[in-house]
Amino acid sequence: MASVLSVRDLRKSYGGNEVVRGVSLAVERGQCFGLLGPNGAGKTTTLRLCLGLTEPDAGSIELAGEPVPARAREARARVGVVPQMDNLDPDFTARENLLVYGRYFGLREADIRTRIPQLLEFAELGGRGESRIQTLSGGMKRRLTLARALINDPDILFMDEPTTGLDPQARHLIWERLKRLLAQGKTILLTTHFMDEAERLCHRLAIMDRGRIIAQGSPRELIERHIEPEVVEVYGEGVAEWGVRAARDSASRVEQSGETVFCYATDARPVLAQLEAERGLRYLHRPANLEDVFLKLTGRELRE
What we know:
Blueprint: E1 3-14, E2 17-28, E3 32-36, H1 43-50, E4 58-63, E5 66-68, H2 72-76, E6 79-82, H3 94-104, H4 109-122, H5 138-149, E7 156-160, H6 168-183, E8 187-191, H7 195-201, E9 204-209, E10 212-217, H8 219-226, E11 230-236, H9 239-249, E12 253-257, E13 260-265, H10 269-276, E14 281-287, H11 290-298
Parallel strand pairs: 3-8, 3-9, 6-7, 7-8
Antiparallel strand pairs: 1-2, 1-4, 4-5, 9-10, 11-13, 11-14, 12-13
C-alpha cells in the first residue's frame, strides 16, 4: 500500500535537548496509525515536524506526495488537523467557523456552502449551525472541530488527542465517526493517551518514549510480542506479601503499583488457585491489553 506519510530519521533539539531522536515511520493510505507515548515523549513535536510547522534538524519527510518542509504549504492543502485543544473562533457561529476555515484553503465560497450542511450532519450538529460556540457542549465543540478539519476533503487527518476531556458517550460518537471516515478511504494519524481508543481504531501504531520509537506494529502484534497473554490484578490487605509468594510459586512475572499487584502469566490457573485460598484479597482476571504493553515498555512512573 502507498504511504501517505513517510518519515526517516527525524531529529529535533531545543536548547541542546534532543526531543525527537531518529524517528522513522510510514502511514499507509486508508489506515489509522496511532502514535502513543507518555507526556514529553515527543509526539506533538513529531506531528508539528510532519506538518511543516517546525523545522527539523535532520531527516526527511514526505507528506501527501510532497517534501516537507520545502513544500509544506502544498502538502497541508491535502491535510486536515484536529488540534489537542479546540481553537474554534468564539465570535462566529458553528456555520461561520466552517465557512471562514474553508476560505483559508482558497476554496470557492459556493463549494464551501455546499459542504457545510453535510459536515454539520456528519458531526450531528445539523440543528446547531447558527449556534454560538459558547453555547456548545465540549462534545459538540470537538465534533465541530472534526467537521472543520474535513472542509477541504483531506487525504489524511492529523488528530492530537481527539477525545481528551470527553464523556464516554461523546468518545464513542467520535470513534464511530472516525471509523466512518476510514471506511471512506481517509487516512488518520492519531495521538492518544487512551489505550482502548488505540486498540479500537488503529491498524498500526508506534510507541514513543524520550524522543525515540521503541516499538511498532498492530495492537495485537505488540500485545503478543511484549506481554504474557493473561493478567490477574490483585487488591486488598496483605497484597504485597501475597505478591512475593506469587512471584515465587505461580506467576511468570509480578509487578506492584500502589495497592495493586499485577500477575502476568502464560497460564493463570495456578495464580487463581492460590487466590481461592486467600481471604481479604480481591482480584480481576483478564486478557492482556495494550495498556499492559505501554506500561511495560515506558514504565509506571508519573511523567510531568
